[in-house]
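Comment thread on ticket #2218

A.B. wrote:
> Attaching the input chain for the structure job we discussed in standup.
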Amino acid sequence: MSLSVGVIIALIAAAFVAGWVDAVVGGGGLIQLPALLIGLPDQTPVASVSGTNKISSAAGTLVATATYLRAVTVDWRSALALVLSAWAGSTVGAQLVQYLPKDYFTPIVLVVLLGVGHYTWRRPQLGLQRRLRFSARRHYIWLVSLGVLVGGYDGFLGPGTGTFFIIGLVGILGYGFLEASALSKIANLTTNLAAISVLASHILWGMGLAMAAANLTGGFLGARMAIRFGNAFVRKVFLFVVSGLAAKLAWDTVSLLLR
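C.D. wrote:
> Ran it. Output below, let me know if you need it in another format.
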């Protein structure tokens, strides 16, 4: 596949920014996936676009996960429950995508995002400290439910998965933003690797590896900044990304209604 130098540079730059955003609060796919759809030729198969996006995202998520784990204490029993349920949910979501229309989900996700953004904005202390709301059994039930739902979303749609993990971990379970970011990275890495195992033969490896290097660099810097500046910094970026995601979904919803 022949791409101009300008397109290659633009895609690598998009991967870097996506890696930074994804490491802090998730949602990097909202930058990287549209960039690939615009930059790659129109005849590029969907599987190739998705697989190339996943190989780049996985690299950034991997380094961000490693960076978080060196600085943030993680409850591995909780992480395992989240990872296994996310893997199962993603598998189911990937199957459902063959039968369910994507357009139906956009307005629903938009309403959820607006509600969560408003809820977080009105509660300045939310996520600044770890205040778990449930006892052991109910805690794991909520974790598994979150993993299945968000993992299913990742298998079905994808962009914003890390943000939705953080929404659930902070808003429902009571984690601080920093620990929620670490847990979301572990879960999101799992779903990325699952997708790569399915799409490996379709990936544009040359472009994918170049973007992966940029995404990895952005992921490393984003995770370091999140750890350095703490929950308050992550909260601000979280609100910014949620606003951007809501704006995109609102545009998609309006476009759907005007068809």
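A.B. wrote:
> Thanks. Noting for the ticket: The chain has one domain: 5-257.
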